[in-house]
Input
Amino acid sequence: MPEPVPPANRPPLLIVSVASGYGGAERTIETLLPPLLAQRRVEVFASNPLHLERLQRISHPRLGLHEVDATQGDFAAIAARRLVKRVLALRPSALLTNTIDSLRILALATKWLPGLDAIACVAAHDFLWFDRAALLPQVPRATLVVPDRSVLERPDYLADYVWPHGPMRAVVIPNPVDIPEAPAAEPAEDAPFLHLATLNGFKGHAALVAAAAVLKVRCPGLRIVSAGHRPIPALERELRERMAAVDIAGTLDLQDHVPDPSALLRQARAVLVTSLSEHGGPETFSRAIIEAWAQGRPVIAFACGAPAQLIRHEVDGLLVDEGDVEGLAGAVERLHRDPALADRLGRNGRERAARDFATPQVLAQWTAVLDGRWCVRRLAPPAGAGRGGPALLLDVSLTLENGWNSPVGMSRVERHTADHVATQPVRVQLVRRSPEQGGYRRLSGQELEFLAGTPDGMGRIADAELAAGALPPPPRARPPGPVTRALASLQLTDPRLRRLITHRLVPRRLIRKLEGRLTAKPRRAPRPAPPFAPAAGDVLLSVSNPWDYLAPSVFTALRAQGVRLVLAVHDLMVWETPQWTAGRDPRRYCADMLGTLAQADALVAVSQHTARQVERALAEQGCALPPLRVAAPGGLVTAGALAGGPPPGLPKDRPFVLYCSTIEIRKNHILLLNLWEQLRALLPPERLPVLVLAGRWGWGADAVRLAVERNWRLAPHVRVVPALRDEQLRWLYRHARFTVFPSFTEGFGLPVAESLALGTPVLVSAHPALIEASAGLMPALDPGDLPAWRAAVIRLCLDDTYLAQLRAKAVQYPPAPADLLPRALLQAAYVAP
Output
C-alpha cells in the first residue's frame, strides 16, 4: 500500500459546510479541523452563525473562512461561483461537503467546472436528503462518506447511487471525538440524566416526557436535563403543553443549546438518546453517544438506526425497544439505583471511544480518503493474521452481491462463518466467484474496503488484507486540465465575454471540441485484484451454492492443484421440486450441482432432511458420497435482552401476523392473501390481524404483487416490508401474535427457528425440513389445504388459551448457536478443533 503523503507536501483542502442549522455534521468539521490544519491549508465555506463563531475560535494561519449568507435565495449559485474561483486559485487535492446545501453548491460548481466531483468527498449525516435523486447523479465520481452503515442499509435511500449498484465509491468513517486525558469524576448522588438533542420530529421528546412522568412517581428527586436548539416554535409549545399536563416541572428541565456539552456530561449520571424512526429519523450516528463515552458516561437509547449498532447492550449502555416508554423509564431507574452498573458501562464506553472514535484514528481514515488511498480502519486483526501455511480460501461472493442490504438467509450464514473464521489461527484469503475469469479471483481494493466497513469478522479479515496488500490506489478521475479551467473561468467571470468568444471569435468546431473536453469521461487508473494462485493444501470454503454460477470443471481444476473443497449444502430443491425453482434448465442445473457436490472433500448439510436428499441424489447418479455431517444454521442473534423497533407504517393499535421470507412462488404467499381475504368477513375487526410480509420481491411473484397492489379492500390488512434491519426484524418476531411459514419446499427454514428462538409460535407447512426446524413443537399443515390453514389461523386469532400453550412450547425451543454451522465447516476443513 502506498505510504501516506508527508504533511508538508499535502495540497490544500476545501470544505463546504453550509447549512442553516447546526448539529453533528458541523461538530465533526470543528473536531477534525485542528489536526487537519497541522497537515495542510484548509478553507471552509460556512453559513450558520454558531458554526462560524466556533470556526473563528480555531485561529490558525492555514485556516481561511468564507461566510455564506444562506438567507439569500440564490446563495447556492453565489457560493458555487466563489468555490470554483478558490479551486482555480488553490488547486486543492480534495473538496469535502457535509450537508445537503453543500451538495447543492458542489453540483452547481461541477456544472461550471466539470471534473470537480473527481476530487470531492460528499458526507451524508442524516436521512433528510429529499432531492438526492437530482443531485447525486451530477457528482458520480465523488466519494460518498457515511458515519455508519445504517445510512446505506436503508432501502431506497443512497445505496442505489454507490457501488456495487451505482458508480460512486462509498466509505464508512465514524464521527470523531476528543478523548479527555482522564474520565470525569464519579457523579454526585443526585446527578441528572442528560438528553442532548435539537427539538424536532424524530428526537423523541414526547417519549422523554412520558418517561419522566413515570419516573416522577417511581424515583422522586430524579432529574432529566434536555438541552438543545428549539428552532420550531410550534413543536416547543406542544412539548411544554405535554409537560404541563403531566406536571413534571421538577423532573424534566428544558435548557437551551450548549455549544460545549462537556461540563454537562461530566456532571451527568448517563446520557439518553430517544430518537425514533419517524419524521426523518432514525439517528445515523449520534455524537451524543461518543461524547458521553469520552467522559466515561453510559448511554440509554432506543434501539433504532445507528445507536442499535453502536451500543453493546449491557456492555457500554442499555438498549430499549423503540418508543417503549416503560422500558425507557425502567432503564433510567436501573442506572439511578445502581451507580456501580452505570460506572461499569461508562468505563467500557470510554475504552470503546478511545479505540474506535478518537480523533487521531478517525483522522487517519479521512486523510487516506482525501489523499486518494484506501481507507484502512485498523480493526482488531483476525487470529490468523501474519501466519504462514495453507490458506483458507473463504468465498464471500454472496455478501458482495448483497451489497449494502442487511444480510438474510445464506448471506447471514456467510457472515457468521467469517465471524468464526476470524477467531481461528488460520491464514485466510477472501475470494469471490468470477465466471468471466473461469472460476474464482481475489478481491479488489474496492471490494475489501467495502467489506471492511463493519467491525465484524469479515470486516476484520478484509481490513487486515487491505492493510497488508500491495494494491494500487483507488481509481481517481483526471482533474480538470488547463483548457477546462480556462474555459470554466471565462464562463464564470464574464458571461458576456464568453458569449462573444464562443459566438464570434472562435470557430464552432473548436468550441465543440472544448465543450467535449468539459464533458468527456475522465481516465481511470487501473485497479486489478491480486492474482488468484491457490497452492496445494489450501481449502476452498463456500456456503453459498457455487454451482449456481460455476461449472464442475472449475472445481476439478482446483482439486488438480491440490485444493480441498468444503461446502455447505442448504437444499436440493431443484432436484427435489424443480417446478418451484427458477434459473436455467433444471436438468442441467442438477447435473452441475451434483457434479460439484460429488467432488467435495467434505459436505455440511443444514438439516437432516437436506442430508438425506444429498444421499439419495448422489446414489441415484452412482456417485460416492463425500464425508457428510449436519449442522443447523444460526439466525438472528437472540441471546440477551436485545431490543428493537417496528418498521415505519405498521399500525400501532392492531395485532399482526408475520411471514418472513423472500416473496416468490414456492413460498406460497398467495395462500395467505386468499386466506386474509376470507378473514375480513370471518373475524371481528378488533381480532383481525395485519398480515406483515417481510422480504424482498423474488421470481414468480406476479400473482402476489397483483393481489397486494390491486385489492384495495385487502390493502388495510396487509403490509409488505421489503427490507429490514436486524433490530426491526427482532421486534417483529417478538411482538407478532404468531408467525406463519406455508412454504411448499425448504432446505431448513431459518425464519421458523428465529421465531421460536424469540418465543413466538409459528404455523408451518408439513414439509420435513420445516418440521425439523421447528423441532416438531408447532402445528404442521398441508401447504395446499386452505381450509386447514383458515381453521388454524382463526383459532390462534380468537383462542388466547391455545396461543398461550403454543408460546409455552416455543419457550422450550433450543436455538442453534450462530457458530454451530461455521464450527462444523471448519472442523470438516481440518482447521479447527
Summary: The mean pLDDT is 89.
